[in-house]
Write a structure and sequence with these properties.
By secondary structure, the protein is an alpha/beta fold. About 40% of the residues lie in helices and about 10% in strands. It has ten helices and six strands, in the order E-H-H-H-H-H-E-H-H-E-H-E-H-E-E-H. The protein has a six-stranded parallel sheet with strand order 3-2-1-4-5-6, sandwiched between helices.
Length: about 230
């Protein structure tokens, strides 16, 4: 159920990818666990899932510091993680994702993809015809300040030509929620990776992407955008 609803004239919706549109987090966990096993570390779930939203570079740096792994082995660990994911991933969308994205396109509602994932990984693992539906895609390339910084969501709003304060962000991770709120966006969090206790900064929290359809903010987005188009 929603924690808070703020009446705004929403004009766009910005989606995180892993854990929001793609049911990928278990595959990422297994890939990191396999990579860290090469240096003698047993990765536990609670040490990984709250980190979702970090770039892969920040994640491997975090693990090196956390587990006292020499920084010189960071590239080796990251390469093994990427190799494992590409070889063993079993990509699927969450229920109703494709239909929802198609409905946004039909209604001419602005939307974007904002992810810490690398563009080459998305291209290799996600159907390209699905990615082509997004007019704006922001990814986690090296050198860009990523979540919890607001930069990715601010960049997406700027490219769409919308006010971040009139944008809905759909996230599933604490760092992503922090980034969305720092950007001034209204944030809906999904409990697909961590429980709602980790997502208290979000404006609304729902168990799943399908449950999110109950959101008054989502309904307001549709209504306000249609009204704007008629002016």
């Amino acid at each position: 159920m929603p924690r808070r609803y703020e009446s705004r004239n929403f004009q766009s919706i910005l989606f995180d990818f892993d854990g929001v549109l793609g049911d990928t987090m278990e595959d990422h966990f297994r890939a990191w666990r396999s990579a860290l096993a090469f240096v003698g570390i047993i990765l536990k779930r609670e040490a990984f899932f709250p980190l979702e939203g970090m770039s892969v570079y920040d994640t491997v740096e975090h693990f090196c510091k956390l587990f006292n792994i020499p920084a010189s082995r960071a590239d080796e660990i990251l390469n093994k993680k990427i190799e494992h994911y590409l070889k063993h991933h079993s990509f699927v969308f969450f229920p109703f994702v494709e239909e929802f994205i198609d409905s946004l396109r039909l209604k001419n509602i602005s939307f974007a993809l904002v992810t810490a994932g690398m563009r080459n990984r998305l291209n290799a693992t996600v159907p390209l015809d699905f990615l082509a539906k997004f007019p704006v895609i922001i990814t986690g390339e090296r050198g860009v300040r990523m979540k919890p910084c607001p930069d990715p969501y601010l960049a997406a709003a700027q490219e769409l030509g919308v006010d971040p304060r009139e944008s809905i962000v759909v996230e599933n991770a604490p760092l992503g929620v922090q980034a969305a709120k720092a950007a001034g966006c209204f944030c809906i969090a999904l409990e697909t990776s961590v429980s709602k206790e980790y997502l208290t900064q979000a404006d609304e929290t729902y168990p799943s992407f399908l449950d999110m359809q109950k959101s008054l903010a989502i309904q307001n987005l549709t209504i306000s955008t249609i009204c704007l188009q008629k002016k």
